[in-house]
Each structure stands twice: as C-alpha cells, then as structure tokens.
Amino acid sequence: MTTPLRIGIAGLGTVGGGVVKIIQKHGKLLAQRGGAGFEITAVSARSRNKNRDFDVSAYAWEDDPVAMSRRDDVDVVIEAMGGEDGPAKAAVETALAAGKHVVTANKAMLAHHGQAMVELAEANSACLRYEAAVAGGIPCVKALGEGLAANGMTRVMGVLNGTCNYILTTMEKTGADYADVLHDAQQLGYAEADPSFDVGGIDAAHKLALMASLAFGTKVDFEGVKTEGIDRVSLEDITHAADMGYRVKLLGVARMHDHGLEQRMQPCLVPVSSSIGVLDGVTNMVVCEGDFVGQTVFTGPGAGEGPTASAIVADLVDIARGVRTPAFGVPAKDLVAANRATSLTPTAYYLRLALKDQPGVLAQVTDALGKSGVSIEQMHQNANGGPGATVLIVTHETTRDALDEALTAFEASENCLAPPVSLRIETV
Amino acid sequence: MTTPLRIGIAGLGTVGGGVVKIIQKHGKLLAQRGGAGFEITAVSARSRNKNRDFDVSAYAWEDDPVAMSRRDDVDVVIEAMGGEDGPAKAAVETALAAGKHVVTANKAMLAHHGQAMVELAEANSACLRYEAAVAGGIPCVKALGEGLAANGMTRVMGVLNGTCNYILTTMEKTGADYADVLHDAQQLGYAEADPSFDVGGIDAAHKLALMASLAFGTKVDFEGVKTEGIDRVSLEDITHAADMGYRVKLLGVARMHDHGLEQRMQPCLVPVSSSIGVLDGVTNMVVCEGDFVGQTVFTGPGAGEGPTASAIVADLVDIARGVRTPAFGVPAKDLVAANRATSLTPTAYYLRLALKDQPGVLAQVTDALGKSGVSIEQMHQNANGGPGATVLIVTHETTRDALDEALTAFEASENCLAPPVSLRIETV
C-alpha cells in the first residue's frame, strides 16, 4: 500500500455530499481497488453550519475553495460547486497550476474552458478528469476515451438531459401540455426553478460538446453546437409522431464529415422501437458508433447524488492507480480546431403544416415539395375544426436545403396559416 | 513519442486478422491516443500459406506461438487462438513469465486458469487484459473494473451469447422449432458446427464467471456457475411466455449474498418491455447494479471481427498509456474464494404442467401449490387436443424450496403426464 491519496472537496451539495458518503462507506474497498487509501483532508462550501446528512467535522474547513486548492495536504481537488466561471474555475485553475489533479462534474465550465484547462493540466503534469460531467453514472467518458479508442468514431449521439426526456415522455403518456408537465417536474425536483438551462438544451449541449471532443480529437467547441430546446415541441407534434410510429427526443448528434464537425442538440423523431425510442423518463443514453466496433449503447442514471458521486470516485480510483489518460483522448496539442459543418447527408423529416381547408391547397403543397425534389413517404390530413386543416407529412430522405426551398415557397402562399413545423427524423 | 509498443499476434483467424487491420488502418490515431507507436513485429498461426484478406508479410513469422512469446522484439502478446489449454495457455504463460503483457479474447482459458494467470502476471509485473473475452465490443470489463469501481456491486447480469439470443428471438418471431432455427443459424454462420458450447450455456457461463470476479473481488469460479442451456426451451414455452408478457432469454446472473456468491446461467423469463426483454438477435447486453450508481446497461455487438478486435486494441492503447489496473479489479492476493450459494430471495416462476384432462385435477394443482405456500398470479388452461391439458401458471414470489416441494408432490401424482417445466422470472 502506497501513501494515501489526499482529497479536498469543493462544494458539499448533492454531488460533493455523495462523494463524502462513498469514501466513508467504501474506504477499504477503494483502497484495495485503487492501491492506495483515500483520505479526505479538507472541504470547502458556502456555508459551514448548514444541516447536512453526512459528517465533515473530521476534515479541515476552508471558506475559500481557492485556498483549499493551495493546501499542501491536498493531492486531488474535487470540484463539485458548478458554474462555468467564478470560484469553480478559480479553484480548478489554482489546483492544476500547482500540479494537483482535478476531478469535476462541471460540464458548463469544461464546455467553455476545457481546452485551456487541459493545456494547463498537461503543462503541470496534472490529471483533469470529468466522468461525472457527461451522463452522470454512465461511464461513457471512459468508454469513448478508452474502451472504444481503437476506432475511428463515426457518430456519437446522446439523450443527455433527464429533465427533457422526462417532460417529453410524460407529455406523450399523459397527454398533458408542456407547461403543465414542466410544472409537475419542478414539484418533483426533476427540473430547476429556472429550467432554461435544461429545457433550452444548453446543459445537454455542454455534454455533447465534451463527447464530440473525445470522439473526434477536436477542441471543445460548445458555441459550434446548433442548439434548440424542447420548449417549442407541442403536444400535437408528440401525438402525431406517435401515431406515425415515432417518438420525439431531445437528441444530441455529433458527426465528423470531410467538410467539418457537425454538432446538433435538437428535438428529433426516432422510431418508437429503436434503442433511443424506448428510453423513458429521466434515464440517459449514449450511443457510440465506430468503424470497427459498430454501435454500442450505454444507458443509466444521468444525474442524482449516487450516480454522479459514483463517477467522481471512479475517477479518483483511476488517479490512485496511476492512470494518466489524456483528458480528451489525445494530448492537448494534438486536438484540432474543426470547421463547423452542417450535415449534407439526406435525411427524412416530419412536417406539420397549417393550411386553409379548401380545394387545391393540398395539391399546392405536394407541388412545392415535388419541385424541390422532396418526395413524400406518409401524408395525413385532419380538419382541425376551424377554418384550416392540419397536414402531416413524413418525407423520404432529402437535404435540408431542398426542404427549406419548398417550405419557403409554401410559407409565402396565402394558404399557409402558420409557419410550418419541421423536425428531423434521425436514423438510429 | 516514446519507443513503439512491439506486438506479437498469436492466431490469425477472425480475431487476430481484425487486430492486424485496425493497427494497419489507424496507426497514426493509435499513436496519438496511446502516446506510443504500435508496431506489429511477429505473428504466429497454424498455417503460414493460408489465403488471408490482410497482409502479414512484413512481420516475422513463428510456427510456434510459444517461440513468439519468447522473442526479444515482442513487448505484448495478443492471444487470439482460443482453447482453454494447449498452445494458447502455453503462449500466455511463457509471455507473462517473461514479464511481457498479454491481451486475450480467450474466455474459456481465463474461466479455468484466470487466478493462476493473474498471479503469474503480477509476480512478473506484467499486464493481463481481456476486454474482448466478455461481450465482444462492449467495453464492460472496463466499466466493471474501472468505471463503476466506486460501488459495492449488488448484481451483474448479462445476455452474453449472441447465438442463443438469436435462436430464442427467431423462434418467437417465426414460430419455428429450436432444431430448425439452430440449423439456419449454422448456415448463416451465427452458430458453430458443434453448437454445444454456445447452446449449452458454457460459453456464456465462462463470461459470467469473469464478470462476477471483477464485480465482487472473488476468484474466478467457473465450476460454481449453475449452467443450463437453451436446448430444453420449447417453442411452446416461448409462445406461452409471450402471451403472458414475457420473453425467454439465456440470462446470466451473479449476485453476492451474505452466505456466498450466486452464479447462474439459465433460461429465464423477463418482461417483454424491460431493457433485457427488448434485446433482439445477436446483440449482447450487460447490466451492472451498484449501491451508489444504481443500474447501468451496456448493449452492443458481442462477437465478430471488428468488435472483438476493437476490444483487443483498446487494451493495447491502455498498455501503451501505462495503465496497470489489476486484471480482476483488485490485486490477485486480495481476491477471495467465495462460497457457492443459491439465492434465498423469493422470485416468481413460470410453470407449465401437463395434466390429465378430468375433473378435480386443477384443484389438486392449486392445492399442492397452496400447501407449500406458493400463490398464483396468473393461471391459464388449454386443452391440448389429446388426453391431457396444459396448465400455465405464473406464481407470485416464492422460494425455490417451496416450489420444489409443490412440484415434487404434484409430480408423484398419476394425474401428472410429464415432468413439470419451471422457469425463473428474473426481476430486471
């Protein structure tokens, strides 16, 4: 047994508390697995006297997380505060600059500062690890960066925000509106009081940007993720999609093309019976595709005390074992700045059009699509009880350009009562 | 860039050939990821002049794999020959004894000699790695040994043999008999000419024994796996199970109890819509449950050239990176020899009884079950066209002892026309 790994924990909320509990419960097991004892030496949080369901009285207390990062009796800093800048960033930078290892669950911080932080880490021979930042308890950072390292990755996908998946699946199951389900999710603790980070797709886009970097050896480019939230997904579209054999998911997709890196986080349709289609509730899913392995799928809890702390402590075990894998799969100097690209690969789309309910209008739609080379796989028309009709279309594979041309032509017509809704159908 | 990792490959069939192809295609990528170049220096196989769809003429040839293991220009031996003893074992032992690292896909060899081999490896500061031996391309050895290392594992389960899952799902879909589907699977290359290792559950039991060791820190105990094959699963049971909302899977389950380690590989019923129930065809699935992470599920290709080679080369990347994780999660000296145990946890069962079709017989069945404390959740009776009737029962949770008592009592009766069929219903 070598000398113990001395751990400082910054942030004692759900995540930091979970880490304390694991280390207190599994001390002997972790020492066996890691080859070194795990010793929490210092902690830091906003309030020292808050009621907590775990005991930190045996550890040194620091009001300032940066001061904790500087302590001589801390070898590894766990950053569990959150926030892309501010004290989290300062504590991490201080630790890395001092050659201390850092384990963090902070996807926002890494999505914005990942490249600078990994450069700082490598310059100081320190490890920067973040399994908990992507898909909580699912060891997908390890899978992408290590387990699938033999592959040229072709596509990574993920349902990465449990709140959004809960809202979308509950809307379908109960027939309740977005606003009502969001409200219930807030009551149940599945959604924050300010839900915009979740439902706007931003939290999931942070995670996708990290996955893309790992998969393709590119510099983290969060701003390059085309991000759309679920707030504009209507119950009507969910219901119509289900009728046609699809489910709506907030799906992240990253793919490397010859002309650059495609990164999207947006509501998409997937077949009901596909691996992604069957995913219910707050569970997360990561799909990795490589040129030799084919498709592998990882499912599990994407958030919560136990799963997130499990991921953090697994990173600690690796550090104790002497694992020094590069944070984004290759050394920081080898990470490339990829062009941003949209896919030129044809795909199918779901369309919902609000039309005047009168003779000849449907012919106008099919004509506009036909002129742009968009062919139709399914079409359904429902009178909607008012002056108009709803037309639902699933297209065959088409380019986004061709579809936009048709929709633009059609939208200019007086027979179009509202902007057309179009959702991509992802092949999974 | 450090000095290259010099690789010797023993066995140039599907698996060894896949490894050659990956290293030839992804040389630059692997060097970036591993921090060292990958150089195949020597190969060995039964026939030098066999037609192969890859070129090994640039590498030294050894007729004898043991001689290859001894070569000074080989740092890592990839064992891709198969067979639990014989040349595979000899080549691996020679390499480990010389302090060379070994990567193997050979579950049979490790299931029988895993403990001795890991002791030999550690005594010589060599790595023994086997990601490819369990569930092919799914990085589940890494997940269990590293990604979930923070957890006290509570249960691991797996659908670990693609041939069996293909046969069972095809029987349900097509209504064809076991023998016919097996024959088709052999034509398609999904099943061996001698299928007994697969359909007898032995191949899957090898893998389960390795997973259990990793999960629970126990010495590999293949003989302790209670193994039943799928050859006794009838189309009748598959159809009846489907009617009642279940699917039949060859499911491996390992669980640690206070009284010892339970290891089972047997046909079980699982709910149709559960994560295991939806698994189709040759795909494998691994389910890991830990006290902090909860349940994580990994799905992917369990066999084939690309996936198996992907797993082997991932192990090489780890070796190049200097990763020296203990093969079964903790050092060999800490692995414990667990008692063998059967579960005392009550579970539900599916029963199929062949009865005389006459008054009072059904009452005799319910009476026998009731006396042993077994209560009934579902019961269906079908006249089977002959002198008898088929009675299908799903019990509530009961112990195996109570069920056996009832079945033994019933089997002794003259009204029982054939031995009762009972299949466990696994909670997933």
Characterization of the model:
2 copies of one chain form a homodimer. The first copy, chain A, is of the alpha/beta class. The first copy, chain A, folds into 3 domains: 2-133, NAD(P)-binding Rossmann-like Domain (Rossmann fold, 3-Layer(aba) Sandwich); 140-301, 2-Layer Sandwich (Dihydrodipicolinate Reductase, domain 2), CATH 3.30.360.10; 348-425, ACT domain (Alpha-Beta Plaits), CATH 3.30.70.260. Chain A has helices spanning 14-25, 27-34, 65-70, 86-97, 107-123, 140-147, 162-174, 178-187, 196-199, 202-216, 235-243, 305-320, 361-371, 400-411; strands at 2-10, 36-44, 60-62, 76-79, 101-104, 128-129, 153-159, 226-227, 246-257, 260-271, 283-290, 294-301, 348-356, 376-383, 388-395, 421-425. In chain A, strands 3-2-1-4-5-6 form a 6-stranded parallel beta sheet, sandwiched between helices. In chain A, helix 4 links the parallel strand 4 and strand 5 (101-104). In chain A, helix 4 packs parallel to helix 5. The longest helix of chain A has 17 residues, at 107-123. The two termini of chain A are 47 Å apart. The mean pLDDT of chain A is 95.
| Sequence of secondary-structure elements of chain A | EHHEEHEHEHEHEHHHHEHEEEEHEHEEHE
CATH architecture of the largest domain in chain A: 2-Layer Sandwich
Supply the number of helical segments of chain A. 14
CATH T-level fold name of the largest domain in chain A: Dihydrodipicolinate Reductase, domain 2
The CATH class of the largest domain in chain A: Alpha Beta
> Structural class given helices, strands, pairing of chain A?
alpha/beta
Sequence of strands across the biggest β-sheet of chain A: 3-2-1-4-5-6
| Uncertain parts of chain A | none
Oligomer: homodimer
Give the total of beta strands of chain A.
16
- Overall pLDDT confidence of chain A: 95
Task: Provide the domain count of chain A.
Answer: 3
Q: Main interface pair?
A: A-B, 61 and 62 residues
Rg of chain A, Å, rounded: 24 Å
